[in-house]
Amino acid sequence: MMTEMTLSRRQPSVWWGAMIICGTVVGAGMFTLPVVMAGAWFGWAMIMLLVSWGGMLLSGLLFMRVSLSYPPGAGYDTLTKDLLGRGWATLNGLSILFVLGILTYAYISASGPVYQHSLNQAGVPISTAEAKVLLTIGVAAVVWLGTTGVSRLMTFCVLAKILFLILLFGGLLTQVNVPSLLQAPGAGERYWPYALGVLPFCLASFGYHGNITGLVSYYAGNKKHITQALVLGTLLSLALYVFWLTSTMGNLPRSAFPEIVQQGGDIAALMAALRAQLHVNALSLMMSIFSHFAVIASFLGVTAGLFDFIADRLGLGHSPTARFKTACLTFLPPLMASICWPSGFVAAIGFAGLFATLWAVIVPAMLAWRSQQRCSIAVVLLFAFGLLNILAWMLSWFKLLPEFVAE
């Protein structure tokens, strides 16, 4: 009996690891997907999503194999420094810092209009900037208090997010306009030229690599269980994204998205467009509640990681005063940037996709290469996937890819 209990403790359920991955992956970034995929529309969007899922799963599995050759608890920085040297470790650390910082800016920018709308409806007159400040102070206070507060609020938000997501999907799928979803290009029109620019956003929507070393410790180096958790967690995320795109693109015509982009392409703009199409008031309410929990969960997850990264890098300590300084460094720059440049949500997610290519694709490929002492087919495919994402972002940035605008 004792032996069985001990084995049970040593080998946690694969399901919990999958939930960690899925909870990390599916967040407020999902709101950008239908907006940036509107030009390519549903068919090509599905292809780009599958390609990105396969590439990010492959990079995670390669990184896992490298992690298993180190003692449990060895972090990303330790692996990079040991196999690639201090220069690459520094560059990798800066890219992680940039991605977390720009995602914090993106979530503050996206959350302001959402919470302003809710507070105004509740009879509280407040500006977008004031809503951003209040929300940022609230999240900063939770993060400053420590891991316990973050984990408890995060667990509640993730469970609520999943509940309302299921209820929302159930309602939205009953209203899907299949002919609109499968709409063929008109005369002289092509969807595929818009597809390449979608890749960096898809990559940013499958970021979970910071959790892998934790899973190695959680499953005591059990390769089979870790692999199953990664595959199941990313498959669940892929399924949620497919349902989300089916629900949004099936309820909004393709012609409606240029107007959403002109309004900033953020969560508030997408929610406003969807509310106008919904025929059931309860769905509109569930969508608002879901968007609130999605924002808070993503906001907490990203800022807690950024807070810990800054504290570790600068060695600021864990006293209340030191944590206050870390909180200021974590939240003030993104908050000020969001107030000065309020419409950068979609662009920020694109930048996150670019820099995430380095630490979630290129660096894992290099680590696997150095660890195996050979360039395998998997490493070559991963390098190709990373370079394709960088090319897609650069072509979009220099306006060399078509932009989907109102006709």
UniProtKB/TrEMBL annotation:
Question: Where does it primarily localize?
Answer: membrane
GO biological process terms on file: amino acid transmembrane transport
User: Topology in the membrane?
Assistant: Multi-pass membrane protein
Domain of life of the native organism? Bacteria
TM regions (residue ranges): 12-35, 41-63, 83-108, 128-146, 153-174, 194-219, 226-244, 289-310, 345-369, 376-398
Q: What does this protein do?
A: Involved in transporting aromatic amino acids across the cytoplasmic membrane.
GO MF annotation list: aromatic amino acid transmembrane transporter activity
Q: Which GO terms describe its cellular component?
A: plasma membrane
Q: Which InterPro entries match?
A: Amino_acid_transport_2, Trp_tyr_transpt
Q: Which PANTHER family match?
A: LOW AFFINITY TRYPTOPHAN PERMEASE-RELATED
Q: What is this protein called?
A: Aromatic amino acid permease
The species this protein belongs to is Candidatus Pantoea floridensis
- What keywords were assigned to this record? Amino-acid transport, Cell inner membrane, Cell membrane, Membrane, Transmembrane, Transmembrane helix, Transport
Indicate whether Transport appears among the record's keywords: yes
The subcellular location is:
Cell inner membrane
Family indicated by similarity: Belongs to the amino acid/polyamine transporter 2 family. Mtr/TnaB/TyrP permease subfamily.
